[in-house]
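TICKET #2291
ISSUE: user wants both folds in one file
ATTACHMENT 1:
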Amino acid sequence: MAKNPVKYSVVDAFTDSAFKGNPAAVLLLEEEKDEQWLQSVAAEFNIPDTCYLTRLTSSGSSIPRFHLRWFTPVAEVKLCGHATLAASHALFTSGEVDSNIIEFATLSGILTAKKVVERSGTETHKGFFIELNFPTDPLTESVSAEDSILISKALGGAIVVNTRITSLDKIIVVVPSAEDVAELQPDFGALQKCPGMGIVVTGIAPSESGFDFHSRFFCPKFGVNEDPVCGSAHCALAPYWSKELGKCDFVAYQASPRGGVLNIHLDEQNQRVLLQGKAFTVMEGTLLA
């Protein structure tokens, strides 16, 4: 057995029930570990993201702050929404923090998570949402016609309305409808040959659905063929749909087999995206290696 076993939890994010949403492993470390160990543990969990927290010494603020890193089974990433939600949920529910706000020092700057009590009319429920304050991922140039054809073929011949590249090197692919999003049959081998670190496909939702738009996210280059619910993708989708729909508040559905719901507010003035969702702890244990 290892001298200092590490406790972990597996949390399903952007859902209020087990085995839906997007799973993330959360580990609270007493000290920083080397890169090889972090990546090996992420590969061992073999779920979309494993995140590592280390508590930072207080700088006089009453808000607790943690160093946060995210790893897929094959690489570290600069931004991950669902694992940040999972980490926040683990901290809020374990008693590790005595605050409704947490700050995270990350590769994408300081991010905050806020505990929001669930209300229905005048009634307050025991459950809570978590609101993440993330930077937008602006859309930059359009994808070339040649690459658009390559992406369409990799997505099983999908009708592509628009393709744009984001600052975090995601490719946003717009298709005619939410039904087209759900019916995609991607070729993951072909997607690995497409530009960008991953492909986000989105389409407008039916008016009667209660959602504004649907999406799916494919990221085989980072060891995740389909990310069940991707918070960071919505940092690009929010600005796109804000211009298309003329508003800043959305309810989005990620139409993966597991599915997930995100409440979103775009702060245009500060170029921030507020992502709100629930989470559910499905597993707890101890890492012995």
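ATTACHMENT 2:
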Amino acid sequence: MALIGVAASILLLLIFIRIMFVFLSTGKPVRNLCSSKPVSTLIILGSGGHTAEMMNLLCVLEIDKFSPRSYIAAATDNMSLQKAKVFEQSLAHGASAGNTSRTAKFMQIYRSREVGQSYVTSVGTTLVAMVHALWLILKIRPTVVLCNGPGTCVPLCVAAFLVKVVGIRWSFIFYVESIARVKKLSLSGLMLYKLHLADQFFVQWPKLQKAYPRAQYVGCLM
């Protein structure tokens, strides 16, 4: 029994050290993405203007570098994936996109909480969403995760962090706060900021950067 206790203590210590290593490594300058080699990218979409902002953001990126691309939206969001498909179709007609847009995938995830849903019943749906998010992350294994505030991004980013801790895949999480957030972060942004889950956290207003000093002010991206 004593040996089992010692082994358990050592295992817990190793897990703790690994978690601390991931926490300390998160947020440091990302050098692994500087090569010209394309990187597998997960793009998280959301209703209420989030998808429109994400599409605008993708338009200013060197899109060929972020390939293959996987888009994820909530299961009850019928518009976001359609907008992503239109975006990919526009790339397919452009010379710069080559054939990379053909590799795009479109997926849906359970919502943690629907609008108006009670907090009691949302406990169960949050657990379901977390398990589903972990399955999706293990399936996609993205090198880069792009998100800009929909609630759907929280379980996916937590799942990506857990996969980092286990050592299956090191996913770099890039969070861009919505341009609508001038003085305060959204709930999703606040959670990712407080939990140190994002490798790079961008805001579009100087007041936000002053309130949250670990964020990077990049000006208006839209």
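RESOLUTION: both attachments delivered.
EXTRA DETAIL ON ATTACHMENT 2: The helical segments are 2-25, 50-59, 80-92, 119-140, 153-166, 187-194, 206-211.
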